[in-house]
Amino acid sequence: MVPGYDSGMVDEPISFPRAPMGPSADTIPVTRFDRLELGQILNVYGRMVAAGEWRDYAVDFLEDCAVFSIFRRSSEMPLFRVEKRPRLRTRQGQYAVIATGGLVMKRGHELAQVLRIFDKKLLKALG
Q1: CA triplet 83, 85, 109: central angle to 5 degrees?
Q2: Is 127 helix (H, G, I), strand (E, B) or coil?
Q3: In this structure, is residue 115 part of a structural domain?
Q4: In a domain, 88, yes or no
Q5: How many CA atoms lie within 13 A of 87 on its CB side?
Q6: What is the pTM of this model?
């Protein structure tokens, strides 16, 4: 017999209600990174983690943008944010890399081109 365990109690599974699926009037559209975009971002992130520069990340999916935040430590402000804003697709480009102070380091129409800003930082970290 295990102390503190009442054999008369039955463990019942906890059920979680599912959110309604499909389009409806009360759901808010959310901007997301697709699998290819997330793969490109995680490739750069993995190289910088291996170089010892970055340690943590967070992903936020909001109504008007998707944000991949990069941290040196999880208790700090993000060093960089990779943002996808589809509304800017026809203007200056939907992808941007933004530094801690809000400085837009690079903006463009192609994610791979925007992420090349980190190649310089990787070379500096390895050298």
Answers
A1: 85
A2: coil
A3: yes
A4: yes
A5: 7
A6: 0.73
Tens of pLDDT, residue by residue, the chain (127 residues): 555 555 555 566 666 666 566 555 456 778 888 899 999 999 999 999 998 888 999 999 988 999 999 998 767 788 999 999 999 888 888 999 999 889 999 999 999 999 999 887 666 655 5
Amino acid at 120: K
For residue 87, give its domain range. 35-119
What's the number of domains the chain is made of? 1
List all residues 6 or more positions away from 4 whose beta carbon is below 8 Å from its beta carbon.
none
Buried b (16+ CB within 10 A) or exposed e, 23-43: eeeeeeeebebeeebbebbee
Q: Could you tell me if residue 126 is inside a domain?
A: no
